[in-house]
Design goal:
The chain is mainly alpha-helical. The protein has one domain. The chain contains twelve helices and no strands. Helix 8 packs antiparallel against helix 12 and helix 9 packs antiparallel against helix 10. The longest helix is centred in the first third of the chain and has 48 residues. The C terminus is likely disordered.
């Protein structure tokens, strides 16, 4: 090995480190996939704790007992999420037939407008509407066949909620517990990395909440102006969907446009679509870069790569967890660089002063 030049030895060392880290990460991912019913609730609980910890701390400062404060925090979140899902579900169920009829009527109007009435365009519209009309039965049969998956998802959600309660209640003891699990010599470094990782996740959740609130307020205001029914519930769905990058915005926007189509017709639905697209463009180009640059400091290209990797590994759940996990990894990396990066060497000394000619 000593026969190799120094740059080659450094490259070989870095390659060995990269291979070792990649192997550990791969094994961790495989174990996580095998233990998905237990791992996903833990990760979701950590995200929920990072989001709800400020509210819990405020309640504790108001002299509320820690257990009661944790229970009130979980109950508030459960009520908000459950209420929004209930309102949106009822709106979709009540207006589904109207959505299909409005879609059929709108496409026929377009066919008449462009002089294509009675042609294959109109036939295509009828077929599309009939497919949408049969969607309810297809979805129902899918739900029946996927009862086991639904039960598993419900169990994971209940477990995540219980873990959020315990994490909030015992958050003051997390540092001591972590230090007791690692060797004493490395306790300070592990604690610092854990703090930096949690701060990164907390910053991501805080930034996402601000962006989600801006999106929800803007879209709700637009839907109220257009007279779309259930605008407040749809705005709540937009707020919740913002925590799932890209997919959540698409789903919540599509629901808002469908409700507008069913109740107000094609023109108002197109206006609602325009409102959603404008808000999403403002979010992607102004709101999110401005907020997330101060809380997470992750380049958008890294976010896209992380989302792609998360989707390929764990589907929708991977999309939800990809950016927080990446933020935590970046936080740990910054802490390691701050701790172990070699400091710059001392400035080279000036030229030595020779003996005086008078000596």
């Amino acid at each position: 090995m000593q026969l190799l030049p120094e740059p080659v030895r450094r490259l070989a060392a870095w390659c060995a480190v990269i291979l070792l880290v990649s192997g550990v990460v791969y094994i961790g991912i495989r174990l996580g996939m095998a233990l998905r019913p237990a791992v996903i609730p833990v990760l979701l609980a950590l995200l929920g704790t990072a989001l709800l910890l400020p509210l819990h701390r405020w309640l504790v400062r108001m002299k509320v007992h820690r257990s009661l404060a944790a229970a009130l925090t979980c109950a508030a979140v459960l009520g908000a999420v459950g209420g929004a899902v209930y309102v949106v579900t009822i709106a979709l169920v009540d207006t589904w037939d109207q959505i299909v009829a409005s879609l059929r009527r709108g496409v026929r109007d377009l066919a008449d407008q462009f002089g294509a009435s009675g042609t294959s365009l109109e036939e295509l519209a009828d077929q599309a509407a009939s497919v949408l009309g049969r969607f309810g039965g297809t979805a129902a049969s899918g739900v029946v066949s996927g009862v086991s998956w639904a039960v598993q998802a419900l169990g994971m959600a209940v477990l995540a909620l219980l873990l959020v309660f315990f994490f909030l209640r015992d958050s003051d003891r997390a540092t001591g517990t972590l230090r007791s699990l690692v060797p004493h010599d490395n306790a300070d470094a592990v604690e610092a990395m854990a703090r930096r990782a949690f701060e990164s996740v907390e910053g991501f959740m805080r930034g996402t909440t601000v962006v989600a609130l801006i999106d929800a307020v803007c879209i709700t205001a637009g839907l109220l102006i257009l007279g779309v029914p259930g605008a407040l519930g749809l705005g709540a769905l937009v707020f919740i969907g913002a925590y799932v990058p890209y997919l959540g915005a698409f789903t919540s926007g599509a629901v808002a446009v469908l409700v507008a189509l069913a109740d107000r017709g094609l023109v108002i639905a197109l206006w609602a679509l325009g409102v959603v697209l404008v808000v999403q463009m403002l979010e992607g180009n102004i709101f999110q870069p401005m907020v997330q640059s101060r809380t997470v400091r992750i380049h958008p290209a890294v976010v896209l790569v992380a989302l792609t990797a998360g989707a390929s590994v764990a589907g929708v759940m991977g999309v939800l967890l990809a950016v927080p996990v990446t933020a935590a990894a970046f936080g740990v990396g910054r802490e390691l660089r701050a701790r172990y990066a070699s400091p710059p060497g001392p400035a080279p000394a000036g030229p030595a002063t020779g003996p005086s000619a008078d000596a």
